Amino acid sequence: MVVLDIAVTIVSLMVVGFYTWSLKGHFSSPTMPDGAKVISAAVTASTLFFLYLIWSREQSGTAQGIGLLLEIAAAVLFWWAVSASRRARLRFAFDADHPDSIVTEGPYRYVRHPFYSSYIVFWSGWALATQTIWAIVPVVAFVAIYIVAARDEERKFGNTALAPTYADYKSRTGFLFPRLTRG
Fold it and tell me: What is the pTM of this model?
């Protein structure tokens, strides 16, 4: 359905635009680490790949509709995380510097890495909207990259004066998705 193809394209490009904005408008690393450059290149390649998939084949309206809802949910989570972390000096993924603050407001009350969660939900939604098994490949790659980045960030907290506070925070919150149970 062409209307849904257009909607998926517009929403997807808007969300990728939001993520691109955050590179200069939100995160505060002095330079972009090599790992973040790899992520940026993967985002560009995956965006082109997913656009090709959307426009080169037919998808069901249901798959596209659910995919759109996931993309919108990812955008909402992204902006919620931006709002909650605006005053913190968050850095790019794979930045060598150690963290100097812990954000525990907004989505950080539930998950320690809401930006990565947002990215995973977004790519999963776009993959679903393409309705092809090949779209799983970039999603799996992104999930792996974001898990490695998040674990690296958590390891860095252990090397700061924030380690005990972060350990307590970690015990109460989910890694990428909220905990279903406490403890």
Answer: 0.95
